[in-house]
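Lecture notes, structural biology module. Today: joint structure prediction for complexes of two components.
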Amino acid sequence: MFKFFSSSNIYSLIQKLINFINSIFFLILAIGLTFALVLSPPDYLQGDSVRIMYVHVPSAWIGLACFSVITLLSVLNFIFKIKNFYFINKSIAPIGLLFTCLAIVTGSLWGQPTWGTWWAWDARLTSMLVMMLFYIFYILTFKFLDNEESIIKVSSIIAIIGSINLPIIKYSVEWWSTLHQPASIKIVGSSSIHSEMMLPLMVMLLVFLLYAALIFLMKYKTEIIRIKKKNIKRK
Amino acid sequence: MTSNFITMNGYGLYVWLSFSVVFISCAFVYFKTKKTLKKYEQEFLVELQTLTLEEKKKVLENSKVAQQILATSFKAN
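The predicted structure, tokenised, for the full assembly:
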């Protein structure tokens, strides 16, 4: 069982997964784009601007999910000192930052025709901006600190403090009166989104998840090679 | 029909700009990540070349990852 998790097995599994994602990615992307830009109906209020939702919402979800994973692994690393979690976090953080930035930019492009403004210091928008800043601080620790021990300590502290912002992002639209609309899709309870819009959204989410997985695997593979290279030098 | 698809009933600028920003950013990150991976693979192989035959043999015997990187580079070439 533990032999399966050796770096050589993980390395060959990563390569297989990269090849698999590469083989199906463009087909799913084509399906997603056809649904999002052609087949899905315009909104009765927002018209065709609602199509921005198909890139905005998955970006925001993945941005949030990445920070949640980083926090969880940081806590586990703090307790159990599993170095692999540090490499996983290092590979996930840039993906989270990318999708958080994309959520903010596409949100702004959606806000202009819908609210008449590119930006408002609204609770949801501001808390997303705060998360982006936490991602930047988190990544900067890898760039500017040399000692691995202190990187793990500082980055974990940043992730744990930043995680306070996660429920604020989630519930900001309920706690405060915001320009941003309340959640249309709920894990518990019925969603207020029509199935004709839900399907493209789920396909686009799958596309974004596959892309995130692809980048993660490539970054993690780079980390394995970096460690192996260091080990050769030591020998 | 085609004109409607491009203009998106007046929202074309916002819709197309959103999709373009997303796909250009994602493509940029993908190619940058791929380039870094290739760079590290090359650096690893260069590091391997600096070893003596005996050391190289030892590294390849002990590390399956090293074998796989070497195999991938042969395939690529």
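Point to remember: Residues 24 and 30 of chain B are 10 Å apart (CA to CA).
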